[in-house]
Amino acid sequence: MILEKFTSLHKSVKVFIQVAVDMVCIFASYIGSLLMQYGINIPNPTMTLFSRTIIPIVLIYVAFFFAFALYRSFWQRASLDELIMSVAATACATIAIYFVMYAVKQVMPQSIYIAGGLIIIILTSFSRLNYRIIRRLLHGISLAKGERVMIFGAGEVGEMVIRQLLESNEAGNYRG
Rounded to two decimals, what is the model's pTM? Predict the structure, then answer.
C-alpha cells in the first residue's frame, strides 16, 4: 500500500516530497488569490508580473519554512504546535516577500499577498494533516477503541505517549 511505502522512505526523500507539496500549495495559493481578485480576467500586466515573481515567491516561502523547522517533523506528527509555526512562518514570509517585491519595484496589489498567505496556511496545514487523517481511516484507529487509560506526565512527553498509543496498530489491544 502507498501509505506503508511512504512510511519506509528515507527521511531526505520525505522532506523532498513535503517541499514539493508545499511548492504546489504556494503556487496554487497565489493563482487562487489572483482569481479571487480579478476573476477569470486577470490583467496582462498583473499576469506578467506574477509569472516573473512566482519562482522567487515560492523559494522565499520554502526558505522560511526551513528556517521555522517545518520540515523536521512529518505528517504523522502534525500538531497544534506545527500549525502555529506554519502560521508564523507564512506570516513572516508574506511580509518579507512584500518588502522584497516593493524594493525591486515588482509589487502586485497588497490583497494578492494577503490572500495568498491565508490560502497557503490553509493548504499547507491541510496537506500536513491529511496524512494523519488517511492513516487513521486506513488503520481503523479510533479514540473510542480499546481500554481507557490515564496518562500522567508533563508536556511533550505525555503527548508523545498518547500519540504513539493512538497511532500504533495495536492501540486497541494495549493492556499495559
Answer: 0.73
